[in-house]
Amino acid sequence: MACQHVDVRKIVTAVLVNAAALAVAAWIFSGIRVGGDTTSGRVMTLLVVAAIFGLINAVVAPVAKLLSLPFIILTLGLLLLVINAAMLLLAAEISEAVDVNFRVDGFLTAVGGALVISIVSWALELAVDR
What we know:
Layout lengths: L7 H21 L3 E3 L4 H29 L1 H6 L3 H20 L4 E3 L2 H23 L1
Antiparallel strand pairs: 1-2
Helix pairs in contact: 1-2, 1-5, 2-4, 4-5
């Protein structure tokens, strides 16, 4: 069995990009709250939630998108925003289950947050890849 090379820089970059995008979404929407008593505590919370969010987007989101593909086509891709919002809500639930203070209040906040996270992540990935 061959050992595959894991590019740690890509993983760290993805977590940092997700953390920054989550921070922007939390800054814009009062319904997205990042807990922590200090700035370093909030940064650690963002990093942990970003890792959880990245795992969800790597494992759960592709399955959800594949199973809902006909509806994604029917809605001309708008269902992807709903799926991304559901992934953000799932990340908040998992974070709460592992005692990380991250909350998303309501589905509409999650939709707005998912939109902001998608745009910020896209922009940051473009900037980092150069």
